[in-house]
Amino acid sequence: MFLTVWHHYETLASIVTQIKFKIYTMKKFVLAATVLALAGFSAVQASEVNTIKNAAIVAVQDSAVKTPVKLEELPEPVTTALKSDAYKGWTATEAFSVKEGTKEYYLINIKKEAETGSVKIDKDGKPVQ
Q: Model pTM?
């Protein structure tokens, strides 16, 4: 009977050792997965910061100054251009005088039913690219 109890003890001890080894292995796996996840999260955060920095630089370089202008106060060549066949059916909704470096032009927002758009026309009534 003592041998039977001893045999059960050895079997139980072997099972406990196997369970401890599996728990140890799982802890290492969970720790490694956590480290990899944190490293990936840090890389994503760093790339978002770089994107934000680049966007800020672009915004600083844009030196265009827009000043609202009443539609009635647009120069005659500009209003004539808006009445041409190129803009037939379109209605001007608002206008801005834009100074961008050495270029000066009018930015006119236009509407045709549900469609909207904008055109750039210089003071001589010519389209601006």
A: 0.51
